[in-house]
Amino acid sequence: MPKLTCEVSASLLDALARAAAGTGESIDHIVSRALADALQVEHGTLFQVSTSGAIVEGLFGGVVSVGTLREHGDFGLGTFAGLDGEMIALDGAFFQMRSDGTIHRAEDGMQVPFALVTHFTPQGEDTLAPFASMAELLARLDARRDSDNIFYAVRLSGRFATVHDRVACKAGAHETLVEATSHQAEFRHQDVPGTMVGFYTPAYARGIGIPGWHLHFISADLSRGGHVLGCAGAGIRLEMERLDDFRSPCRRPPPS
Ligand SMILES: [Zn+2]
Fold first, then answer.
1. For 16-52, what is each residue's pLDDT tens digit?
2. Distance from the alpha carbon of residue 16 to the mean position of ligand 1, in angstroms
3. For the structural domain made of 42-247, what CATH number should be given?
4. What spacing in Å lies between the alpha carbon of 239 and ligand 1's midpoint?
5. Residue spans per domain, the chain
């Protein structure tokens, strides 16, 4: 990455140091984001709907529409109002993967209480060494990150030896996340070609996101998929993007 050297006032430098110490964000990240804002450059922008905190509390009502999400990205993951299945967005197509195993194109009017989307522009691609478990895959992905304090997007594509995924079942009224996911559907696929869409959320963003990696899968024939719980594969292609800018409408649905 290019380096920028410039003079700033002592008070600005103090404020910058305090912000970095308070949030755990790097000074590079804070300055890049402020510059992108001031210059109205939208690059590496992650758009997040709602907060994981709201989801855990059982606020599953829709916050924005799929049509609005499309304006902010062509690549992403999330869920639908009432926790009615898992969302995956790939190359601009948004899909609803439901607990009965069916997959449908998501209509623009459908409501979404939680999602991460971006205009995916990977900074490089590579082939991952074989991995026998989810833990091995996540360790490989962690090794590719150059920072603990930045969001990342990844696309993993190829023929997976195994994928174990879950799909949320539509929640009953007033259920919490723990109750709602206690009756989720789980699927195991063998030797399945497809794509995973994933995001890394840094620890400092706890409360607005779940720290660590979050991956959703869809098979190449668009017939199977869900929130990834386990997987194994060899010869899987990795594409990755640093997301230096984070935006959230921070709107919560009204309590019902
Ligand atoms: Zn998920």
1. 999 888 877 778 778 877 877 777 665 678 888 865 5
2. 34
3. 3.30.1330.80
4. 19
5. 42-247
